[in-house]
Amino acid sequence: MRAEHRGQGLAKLLVATMVDDGPGAHFRWILFTQDAHGLYEAFGFAAPDETAMVRPAR
Q1: CA distance to 34, 45, 51, 53, 56, per residue, from 38 (Å)
Q2: Using one digit for the tens of pLDDT, what is the confidence trace for 6-32?
Q3: Angstrom distance (rounded) from CA 21 to CA 14
Q4: Torsions phi, psi of 19, nearest 5?
Q5: How many CB atoms lie within 10 A of CB 53?
Q6: DSSP codes of every residue in 2-44
Q7: Are 16 and 39 in contact (CB under 8 A)?
């Protein structure tokens, strides 16, 4: 995201549209990211539970 777009709520709007308001509202979402954890936590993302397993890329 460009610096001039930061702070306008665009990321929150995009995430809300995808995970709360869109057809994926009832999906079990899996997110891999190195940043913006605070943004995603606000939408209910958290560390995986005992039902999640990941096979890392080789």
Answers
A1: 11, 9, 23, 23, 24
A2: 889 999 999 999 999 988 899 989 999
A3: 10
A4: -100, -20
A5: 6
A6: -GGGTTSSHHHHHHIIIIIISGGGGS------SS-HHHHHTTT
A7: no
Q: CB atoms < 10 A from the CB of 15, how many?
A: 19
Nearest to 41 by CA among 51, 50, 31, 49: 31
Domain boundaries, the chain: 3-41
Distance, CA of 52 to CA of 34 (rounded, Å): 18
The reported pTM is 0.73
Cα separation of the two ends of the chain: 29
